[in-house]
Write a structure and sequence with these properties.
- The protein is an alpha/beta fold.
- 34% of the residues lie in helices and 31% in strands.
- It contains four helices and eight strands.
- The strands form two sheets. A five-stranded mixed beta sheet has the order 6-5-4-7-8, with helices on both faces.
- Strand 5, helix 2 and strand 6 form a beta-alpha-beta unit.
Length: 146
Amino acid sequence: FRRVLFRSTNDGIINLKLENEKIILKDYPNKIVLLNFFTTWCPACKAEIPNLIQLQNSYKNDFVIISVVLEEMKTNEQIKNFIKESNINYEVANAPECIELARSLGGIKSIPTMFLIDRNNDVFQKYVGLVPTEMMEVDIKKVLEK
């Protein structure tokens, strides 16, 4: 297994562990997690932000989004400005460990790439590219009903 600790831009620590096929986020027990790999320059990544904000608002009791920046040269100040300009209401991680995490998950070939992780730490769905909110909502509801 592999453990990755990294700091989110709001100075929280995200404690993530990869074990077999599971992605375990110790700080979010009983939450559905959307792990979102993105860059600030990617048009599709920017286009999905309002959808992610809406999902975070709609399911805040059961659901958390963690966005993982895959840009090695971005400072936390630059990312904090991006978060503010985009009105992002979810966790964003910007650390050298983000690249390591992407490699540990088999490499992220295109962005955005997202993993919907259920309450048992299993990957319920993997999304590559821009995904309609409705499609993600259907999956979130399926996971909630499990």
